[in-house]
Amino acid sequence: MLQVRNLSHRYGRDQVLHDLNFTVDTGQVVGLLGPNGAGKTTTMRILTGYLTPVSGEVVFDGKNALDNVVSLRRELGYMPENVPLYPELEVGRYLLWAAKVKESADPMAQVAEVMERCGLTHMAQRRIRHLSRGYKQRVGLAQALLGSAKLLILDEPTVGLDPGQIREIRSLIRELGKERTILLSSHILSEVELTCDKVVIINQGRILAQGAPGELAGAMGGGRFLVRLGLGETPAKDALQRIEQQGFVSSASPAPEGHGEDAFVVEVDRTTDRRADLSRFLFDQSWSLLEFRPSGPGLEEAFMNLVAGQEEAAMDEPAMDTDEEAA
Amino acid sequence: MNKSLLIARKDLAVMFASPLAFIVLGCFLVITGYFFALHVVAYWDYGLQIMQMGGMTPGFGTSLFVIQPFIDASGLILLFFMPFVTMRGFSEEKRMGTMEVLLSYPLTEIQLVSGKLLGLAGFLVAALALHAVSPALLFLFANPEPLPALTGYLGLFLLGLSFCSLGLFLSSLTERQIISAVLAFASLLLLWLLLIPKMFLPPFWGELLADLSILSHFETFTSGQIVFADLIYYLTFILGFAWLTVLSLENQRWRR
Predict the structure, then answer these.
(1) pLDDT tens readout for residues B91-141
(2) Residue A267's domain spans which residues?
(3) Tens digits of per-residue pLDDT, A197-238?
(4) pTM to 2 decimals?
């Protein structure tokens, strides 16, 4: 549905995006994950046509969206960060106005449906300035849903909300994801892990990795498993030795205290998925497999590794320049 | 419904939901009302003096002595108040962040600018309709000529809309309302003061500057005439600054 190709942008002399490439397929919920200042909002602003990139292409349904921004906007619903709204207007009045501007076929009926869906029906007469942060967020989502929005772009949809409100908005997004394509940005790992089918990790304007949350965790921070076994007569020491001897196992060690004597942390070759190999080997030994799960915090670890790795590389660059200058 | 009209309706709803619109409207009406009262009292005194001297002067009437100077003065007063209304235009949308939402809707820059200008025209019509109540009262008690009053109001509307167009353009350049208002006020004042150098500049340059002045083209309307050149001046001014606003918005997509 949406393809971003070699997208670059700069503010004055500051290059903020470097050759971004990613795709959002129909029906997917894609998360742009990155720390503050990573370039998420700039990317989203380009996708909505608010900004024109210095170079690169945005292809929406096979057409270059930057050539005809208005037709892209017909199929787009956008909620910027901090949800800017008109505080002077009443919720119902504002949404009806937005529905008409977004060329809804039956504005009244659509507004009623969207308000119902976002839990705003009882707030229709209330002025936006008198709403709580959570309700403002819902109004922002509601206006994005109006018209014939096939693609929803949500910039930090849960920022500033309390835990209860975050849960509500997340479940709304998950529900919306069943029928629409969603691109959301967040700097909260758990949010992306819980709501997205695909994650694009971005830092300092560069894409560091992309894929399904599980795949990324496996590829970058995973490859480490905790296994708890029923060893029978085999002593734990022997079992550990046998596991270590397998070619696909990089290392094996007793699990931290509290997991029992028959539990091990096994690190496998990360170039491919070795879970099947590992479980087959364990069964072949006639041991019972009592527990088998990834060890470590998953996507969070992958994210931190990537970001830290990029920052180290960035710190090394000026040092190299200095060496060259000295030479 | 036409999208420009939708933008205009939203802007009017937002404008009249805040006290600023009522304050500007109230102050404009009080000050112009004060001028109207002064002109009526002056007319009354002058009329008594003429009667005491034993006769009527040809041309002496409320049109020439009350309505025309009242509309003339109102043009200048409008110059002081319109920047407070136009400063909201795009500056407020940018400051609040709603500009980003607006530009994610299927709207062209032309629809956006014409909608904003229509909204301001709506405010202007409301202000002038209330402003016209005082001269309308004169029609109950005297026999002013209706045509100069009508052309005067047409001139006042075109003048006000020119202020709006320039103010809207300046508001598209900044997200700070106060900067937008100060720039609009200074530019309008400068366009008014272009009349003054006529007194000491060589005739060609003096005439040229006077022709550029926004208020010099207004006088013909208040005297009951519609001069084609003046009409073209205002239309060019309004459309010219509206076009510049469109260009400014398009340009900002590249340099935001």
Answers:
(1) 999 999 999 999 999 999 999 999 999 999 999 999 999 999 988 888 888
(2) 222-294
(3) 888 988 888 888 888 876 776 665 557 788 898 888 888 889
(4) 0.79
* pLDDT at B69 > cutoff 80: yes
Please, are residues A66 and B97 in contact by the beta-carbon 8 Å criterion? no
Q: For residue A317, tell me if it sits in a domain.
A: no
The torsion defined by the Cα of A139, A141, A147 and A153, in degrees rounded to 10, comes to 150
Q: Give dist(CA A240, CA A238) in Å, integer.
A: 5
User: In this structure, what CATH number is given to the domain that contains residue A66?
Assistant: 3.40.50.300
Question: What is the DSSP code string of B35-51?
Answer: HHHHHHHHHHHHHHHHH
Helix (H) / strand (E) containing A208? strand A206-211
Q: Does B7 touch chain A (CB under 8 A)?
A: yes
A62 and A130 both lie in a single domain: yes
Same domain, A115 and A161: yes
Assess whether A163 and A120 both reside in one domain: yes
Provide the phi-psi class of A298: left if phi over 0, else alpha when psi is between -120 and 50, else beta: left
Percent of chain A with pLDDT over 90: 29
- Using a CB–CB cut-off of 8 Å, the residues of A that contact B are 45, 48-52, 70-71, 73-74, 76-78, 80, 82, 84-86, 88-89, 93, 97-98, 100-103, 143, 147, 153
A179 and A250 fall within a common domain = no
Instruction: Spell out where A218-308 has E strands.
Output: 224-230, 249-254, 263-268, 288-294
A181-186 and A198-203 as β-strands: parallel, antiparallel, unpaired? Answer: unpaired
Rounded Cα distance, B155 and B153, in Å: 5
Rounded Cα distance, B75 and B219, in Å: 10
Please state the domain count of chain A: 2
Residues B222-238: b if buried by 16+ CB within 10 A, e if exposed = bbbeeeeebbebbeebb
Q: Chain A: give the shortest CA distance to residue B93, in Å.
A: 9
